[in-house]
Each structure stands twice: as C-alpha cells, then as structure tokens.
Design a protein that fits this description.
The chain is 43% helix and 16% strand. By secondary structure, the chain is of the alpha/beta class.
C-alpha cells in the first residue's frame, strides 16, 4: 500500500521534534492505582476522575438498571427518536443542579463547545476569548463566521479594552475556561462578569474541570463565585469528575430551544446511551449526598501542591487539583514523564502545541481517591527524578 507519503513525513517531523507519544494501554479501569499492559502497577496522577466516581456502586447500579430498561443505545439522534425519558430527566436534574432554566446534553464536552459556539455566533457577532482557552473552544469558534478577539490570559485590562472597541457588533460573547486545564488556575469570573455587564456582553464559561470540583457540591465556578443568573452559558463535562462521558450547557430555555433546532453537533449525532444518562443522574445525587468526596479532593490537592513547592518545583499558577510541574522544552518534559512512569508514577507530559514551546510540563492531577501513602510515594518519586533532571 502506498499514498501515505505526506502523512508519514508529517509523523516523522513530530518524532524528530520529540513530540510523538504512543498510546499507553491499561489493563484495568480508571483508579488511583492502575495496571499497565504487561502487568506493572503505577500510581495514577493523570486522570480526570477527580472524585473516583467511575467505580461508585450507585453509578454502576444505575447504569445496569438503565441498560435493562432501555437497552444499550438510544437508537437515534435526539431530534428523531433518541430522546428517552432518561435524557429528559438528566437535563432537568442538571438545570436544577446548576440553578439555570434549562440544560442541554451533548455527546462530549468537546462537541458541546462546538455545538453551542457554532450556533450562537454569527457573522455580525464578536467572540472574545482568553488565549489559554481549551482546544474545543478554539475549534468551536473556528466553526463560526464571528469576528474574533483574543485577550492575554486573565488580563482584565485587555479584556476591557477589547470590549470597548467592539461596541458596534450585534452580540458580544466573552468566553473563558472556568479552571484552565493545563495550568490549574481559576478564571477571574467576577471581574469578567462585571466587565461583560458594563459593556453588554454575554458570558460563556467552560467548567469542564470545575464541575464536581469548585462550588458547593461541585456546582462549578458560577456557584463558587456566587454569580448565579449572571453567566449566560455554563458548559460542563460528564466525563471528568462525573465519571462517565458527555457534555452539557446550562442556560436559558430560549437558548436551549434554539440549539435543539440549530446546533449541528446535537442535530446530527446519536444521543448518549441510556446507561450513561442514568449514571450521570446518580452522580449528581452522589455529589450532593457525599460532600466529603469534594472535601478530600481539596485537602489532597492543597497538601500535595504545598509539598511540591517546598521541594522547589515550579508549579506555575496552580490553585486547583490540576498541578503542573513546568519543565521547559518538549523533549525534556516527555523524558521526565517517561522516567516517572518507570519509577511507578503516571504523570502525563504536556507539550507544544497544547502549551507554549518553552512551557512543556508534566501535569499531575490529584484526586479524592489518593491516600496519604499514595501522595507520599508520589512526592518521593518526584523528588528523586526531579533531582536527576535538575528541576530541583
Ligand atoms: N473543555 C475543557 C476545558 C477540557 O479540558 C475538556 C477535556 N479535555 C473538554 C472541554 C472536552 O471534554 P470531553 O472530554 O468531555 O470531550
């Protein structure tokens, strides 16, 4: 077979730049300790399973019961025959949880951003986006004909300057991650909301890493800052702290109805399996019923971040369970991550183009499942390998 020359050459340049990463295959499900294919057990510090809900008995039971009742698939897109009672129940539950009029569920967080941004923005509008927003926001914006402005990361002076010069557009939408996925810092949402209100803009927050993490019962960044009713679009994932897969937007009923009829990612892709919808309904009950999970997540994260800083690591601007260790050049970050894995700690290397060329890093994610012994083990390994690499 031939014809793959161009693709092969592109792959080779990735490898030459030290940016090639093969997939790591695991023998078991997401957990604090996991087994690499071949049998090696390692401490997992790269999953988004913040609360360990992937294995929660109530969620598993809900998935099994929904499968028995509805079968394994929805059978169609939502707008044809794919809206089952369990989808409707999930959306009502999410809206009540987030304190909004309505919620609409998509197949993933990624497609939620594509569907929502692709629908609400037109050629007469302007979207104003933080430079470190997630790839799915960037791609969602690319799907639109809207005018684009980027503001430097969390720079409120620049945001205000941009808002000032965008007075003539039909609609202005300010977009930010709630928690930034590569740095673990929190968006200055109160300042964004105030500026947006002053200049008549809508506010759009992607809470993928804030759902189940920030706010009362993990309700997200809007709740964390007490901004209910002042954020127009709250995006969430069902794939990280919630433990399953899917995404949603919590918003006004009018926006929901419009998106049901116009969001291409919603219209043209089959509904979530009923087991997933049921799992997510159960997850929201667990968030409210077991607040100790979120408390443990935060005490683990804060303790571990302090420990790394005391060792002398550069943890950037982290203030959440996402804790980067900034290494620098891509190849070095990947080599550091590889050595950590050899020593029993899975800490994903994150390199360009996901982060700037000189900001390669390993990203650690602390979860509620990690025990004190786990975190001591991780800190010991990091200290040893960190010295090897001259990072501390
Ligand atoms: N937004 C942000 C900020 C994310 O970090 C992610 C996950 N990497 C997504 C959206 C996409 O979510 P999902 O994995 O559910 O598609």
């Amino acid at each position: 077979m031939n014809g793959f020359e161009v693709i092969a050459a592109q792959l080779q340049s990735l490898k030459d730049e030290g940016r090639f990463r093969p997939l790591t295959v695991w023998e078991d499900g997401s957990d604090a300790w996991m087994t690499l294919q071949g049998g090696k057990r390692v401490l997992q510090m790269s999953s988004n399973n913040y609360l360990g809900l992937t294995h929660h008995p109530k969620l598993k039971q809900a998935a099994l019961e929904a499968t028995e009742k509805y079968g394994v698939g929805a059978g169609s897109v939502r707008t044809i025959t794919g809206t089952l009672a369990i989808h409707d129940e999930l959306e009502q539950k999410l809206a009540a949880f987030k304190g909004t009029e309505a919620a609409l569920v998509f197949q993933s967080g990624f497609t939620t951003n594509q569907g929502v941004l692709g629908t609400i923005l037109g050629a007469d509008d302007v979207v104003i986006s933080d430079e470190l927003n997630h790839a799915s926001i960037i791609d969602g914006i690319r799907l639109t004909k809207a005018n684009r402005r980027i503001f430097a990361h969390k720079d409120m002076n620049q945001l205000e300057a941009v808002l000032k010069e965008c007075g003539s557009f039909r609609q202005k939408v300010v977009v930010t991650d709630g928690v930034f996925s590569m740095d673990g810092d929190i968006a200055p949402l109160p300042a964004i909301v105030e500026l947006a209100e002053r200049y008549g803009a809508l506010v759009y927050v992607d809470d993928a890493h804030a759902s189940g993490v920030l706010g009362k019962y993990g309700k997200g960044s809007t709740d964390h800052f007490g901004l209910h009713g002042r954020v127009h679009f709250q995006i969430g994932t069902l794939s990280k702290a919630i433990g399953a897969v899917g995404g949603y937007v919590a918003t006004a009923q009018v926006a929901k109805e419009y998106m049901i009829n116009s969001a291409r990612a919603f219209l043209f892709s089959t509904a979530l399996p009923p087991s997933v919808a049921a799992t997510c309904i159960a997850a929201i009950d667990v968030l409210k019923g077991e607040p100790d999970l979120t408390e443990r997540l935060w005490s683990n994260a804060n303790g571990f971040r302090t420990k790394l800083q005391q060792l002398g690591f550069d943890t950037g601007d982290s203030e959440t369970p996402i804790i980067p260790i900034i290494v620098g050049e891509s190849a070095r970050a990947i080599a550091f991550s590889k050595r950590l894995l050899e020593e029993g700690v899975c800490a994903q290397g994150i390199v360009y183009p996901t982060v700037a060329l000189d900001k390669g890093r390993v990203r650690l994610i602390v979860t509620a499942q990690h025990t004190e012994e786990d975190l001591t083990f991780a800190a010991d390994v990091l200290e040893r390998v960190g010295r090897e690499f001259g990072l501390i």
